[in-house]
Amino acid sequence: MSDLVQQLREQLRHTLDATPWETIGGKRLERYDGKVRDCYIDREKGERIIVVTDRLSAFDAVVGSIPSKGQVLNQLATFWFEKTQHIAPNHMLRVPDPNVMIARECDPLPVELVMRSYLTGVTSTSIWKAYEKGARTFCGHALPEGMTKNQKLPAPILTPSTKAQKGDHDVSVSRAELLAMGRIDPALFDRAAEIASKLFSEGQRHAAAHGLILADTKYEMGIAKDGPNKGEITVIDEIHTPDSSRYWYAEDYEERLARGEEPRSLDKEYVRCWLANEAQWNGDGPPPVMPDDIKIEAARRYIASFEQVTGTPFVPDTREPLARIAAALGAA
Predict the structure, then answer these.
(1) What are the tens digits of pLDDT across the range 282-293?
(2) For the chain, first and last CA: distance in Å?
(3) Which one of 1, 161, 170, 327 is CB 3.0 to 4.6 Å from 112, fit for a cystine?
(4) Is 282 exposed, middle or buried (0-12, 13-18, 19+ CB in 10 A)?
């Protein structure tokens, strides 16, 4: 057993599944728990304390906890926010703990901006599932005949998605459909779409330079409520992480495509495939219990994605997470 696998096996008993605090810094803050992040909102300061847990979501449900996942996500988001701040402002202010980001409070746009370059996916709302069923238009984009799964699209496309409440399913829509819903101003959407395209191009360029393919990703954006970028579109949540993005190894992509094999991935697609193919679960009813070996392999892939993307070793903080984060935030 490798040292990493042994370390991850030990951490299975100390994953950050949830946060219990009622006050932070002596203040009772507004709280919102997402699928992966627990947020504490300080309206007075205009800041959001984001604790990135080890929870993993798939098919719009929380399916378990993965060792070190929260630290990987938070530190990769930090890397990418710093790297892309010349393209668009983001909400990051400071990172007081490996699992925590203090962010500027923003009013979120009511849409996720999903950029795709490949015909892939296993979820019922994926572009590949739609194509497999005969669709040749996806979110307003015409798709060529004769394509195979995981093949590169003629050009990157934006496929917006409505933002579902926790427990519900997101819905992919075209620009025209989204605007017909009256959810967002056309000019605001087009500006957000332009930012998404530029971010995706930068992400793909950097990934290619590090031996990876950034096949698709999603961005969340909001309007900054205060600070130097008040009123501007601001990138929020996370960016180019294994939760929000699909990363493949570039070196054997073409060979595996020719053989009809799945690309080697460094994202949560591994867990989605296990759920869909082995556990026969696609989001309906309670999720199956993930075996420890699946959790450990998922964690290994998350860590490998960090190291491949950043070119630096991942060094986890293995101290008990709740006590460590509470000390960093003054939480109780």
Answers:
(1) 889 999 999 999
(2) 38
(3) 161
(4) middle
Angle at 127 between CA 79 and CA 246, to 5 degrees: 20
Cα 97 from chain centre:
19
117, two tokens: 């370059």
Asked if residue 236 has pLDDT above 80, the reply is yes
Main-chain phi, psi angles of 302, to 5 degrees? -60, -45
Indicate whether this model's pTM tops 0.90. yes
Which pLDDT tens digit goes with each residue over 43-95?
Answer: 999 999 999 999 999 988 999 999 999 999 999 999 999 999 999 999 999 99
As a CATH number, domain 3-329 is 3.30.470.20
Which residue type occupies 24? I
Q: Give the whole-angstrom CA distance, residue 159 versus residue 222.
A: 18
Residue spans of the domains in the chain: they are 3-329
